Amino acid sequence: MSCEDVRNRLGSYVDSELSPVELAEVESHLRGCSGCASDALSLLKMKHMTRAATVRYSPTPEFRLRMEQNIRSKKTARWSGWIPRLVTVAVTAVLLLALVTIWANRLDRERAFTELADLHVATLASANPVDVVSTDRHTVKPWFAGRIPFSFNLPELQNSEFTLAGGRVSYLHHNPGAHLLFNLRKHELSVFIFQEQSGELSLFAKDMTSSKLAVQMETWSEGGLRYFIIGDAPASDVHKLSELMRRAARS
């Protein structure tokens, strides 16, 4: 796919209107073309800024008080029999809405986790799993400059069991982020880092672990970034790597 073809599709790309085949072709092109990736990033930033500018109306306490006084002044005895029924209906509606919201949030979290697990597996199956191959954090970190809209720190691994294999740019819900690969004995672990903006990433708890089949996941929020570690290593090893990443983020 040429740069012109990709730029003609960027509007549909940021609005999630591409077919699965077109989406895969566009994201493959973006990983290798810094110019088109920059254009896509600009459109994504504009979209996020537009969303952030939308302010939800919230009535003032004075307005609420006036409305309550007005309602109370117009109450009559003929409505007294309806009050318990209305209260029951309102409470039921609130409970149903809360249950639907909780269930929807859970589905969104599961979908995000599944997508990241698929990215991890697909990367390991690739002939070229990383775009920058290096065990040196001072080589890998600068490589991401200009390719993702944020920076991050990598830990010193000299006295640990982990080895940095390299990194690449990955996308989650069209948001570019860092994908780092670490080796631990016979295990390979992925560390994903994304900006924690409004959307499905904000639905994760601040610290959270999960396990599906042989895959372990740990996620946390630090400095406006959302970190994920995914791999087939034991949960204790996943946590050790997360502690190294947390300390590096705070340094």
Characteristics:
7 strands, 251 residues, Phosphorylase Kinase, domain 1, 7 helices, extended, 7-stranded antiparallel sheet, 21% strand, alpha+beta
What does this structure look like?
The chain has helices at residues 3-14, 20-32, 34-52, 61-73, 83-125, 137-143, 235-250; strands at residues 132-133, 163-172, 175-184, 187-195, 207-212, 215-222, 225-231. It is an alpha+beta fold and 251 residues long. The protein is extended, with a radius of gyration of 24 Å. The protein has seven helices and seven strands. Helix 1 (3-14) crosses helix 2 (20-32) and helix 1 runs parallel beside helix 3 (34-52). Helix content is 49%, strand content 21%. It folds into two domains: 3-52, no CATH class; 112-250, Phosphorylase Kinase, domain 1, CATH 3.30.200.100.
Provide a short characterization of the protein structure:
The protein is α+β, with helices and mostly antiparallel strands and 251 residues long. It contains seven helices and seven strands; from the N terminus they run αααααβαββββββα. It starts with a helix and ends with a helix.
Rg, alpha carbons:
24 Å
Q: Mean pLDDT, nearest integer?
A: 78
The 3D shape can be described as: extended
Calculate the terminal CA-CA distance, rounded to whole Å: 41 Å
The helix fraction, in percent, is 40-55%
The strand order across the widest sheet is: 1-2-3-4-7-6-5
Report the sheet with the most strands, covering strand number, pairing sense and barrel closure.
7 strands, antiparallel
| The first-level CATH class name of the largest domain | Alpha Beta
Structural class: alpha+beta
Instruction: State the assembly state of the protein chains.
Output: single chain
Kindly estimate the percentage of residues that lie in beta strands according to DSSP: 15-25%
CATH superfamily of the largest domain: MucB/RseB, C-terminal domain
CATH architecture of the largest domain: 2-Layer Sandwich
How many β-strands, per DSSP? 7
Count the domains. 2
Spans of at least 5 consecutive residues with low confidence: 99-105
Count of DSSP helices? 7
Give, in order, the helices and strands: HHHHHEHEEEEEEH
CATH fold topology of the largest domain = Phosphorylase Kinase, domain 1
